[in-house]
């Protein structure tokens, strides 16, 4: 830990790839923009996906650095294809991380919760380093989960599809959790993602399509007419489910951009090639096979809807770009995020996905083509309901942008955390 006058040193220890790595990198860059010295701890392969953007920050004078943890025999964790899952074991990073912390004694470390060993390993060093956890979820989902485990409302219903009351906003438990998250002692605090500044075209990974192709396709479409469809960094669908989605989209007659990652191997590939060809000829749809420059697309004026799996990053991106959504939750806390979008914020329609799927479960068809077509028409078809949602999404998007501008709530919270770490330094000294 350095003297009280030197900038606060914040270590960021993202998970290896997947949807959790992107917001942690954004956060490190955002705190550096606010005057902290940010150090991102990564491995050789995983650092490849963000080192260019960090380099650009350094050139503009920001104190943001990458610290590589080296493993024996040049081995690395998982691979660099953003394919890590919550069960990917990263414990081989424990010793190099401990060594680094003992050497550098930063003011704080923000670590991803999927480094399951990190909390104990860091606390046991007794270094007085403030430890903050990124669990990748928002306050709403955290409150919902806490209520589930405390009051067990799910045990009072007869079937897995029967609804139950989970939380009423403003309840004391909800407030307690928010207060805890904002508490002064962040020894084991939780950091909740805020909207981030990003290099849009190169975020996460190199895009599989060039910026110009996307932009000229989007420019050719009327305002608010295009539906953007993407299901996160590691989507899994049954081949038949992809077919249902394709048929539903075609029947809706709505222009769309659909990001199909490597989800459709084997059976049915012929259909998809044909479909892609047909959509290109009719100019109804653009299909991206691989990683898409998400924010570049979502911020375009022709995009009027976002079909999403409701991952928290995706939800935040939809909200902050002011785009209403078609929600298709699949796993993790995505069903909670769907509730937030549809019932609380009222900026989205459900496609009707009801079945929660864990990483190691075989996916099945849960949404038929008619359901897809109906949801697309409700949101994008020019009706009153869709129009209201679009207006509301725009207003909420403006609020989200204001929150990260100078004087906004997120902006102030970031500075408050830096100041708190400075104060903490004085107390420890
Ligand atoms: N993403 C992207 N291009 C893609 C697919 C995903 O930029 O083609 C980004 C997306 O913008 C988001 C993240 O990957 O920031 C996915 O995170 P989210 O929490 O939504 O879902 P997860 O991948 O964790 O399920």
TrEMBL record:
Pfam families: UDPGT
Top-level taxon of the source organism: Eukaryota
InterPro entries linked to this entry: UDP_glucos_trans
Keywords in alphabetical order: Glycosyltransferase, Transferase
Classification via PANTHER family: GLYCOSYLTRANSFERASE
Entry similarity comment: Belongs to the UDP-glycosyltransferase family.
Protein name in the entry: Glycosyltransferase
Annotated organism of origin: Hibiscus sabdariffa (roselle)
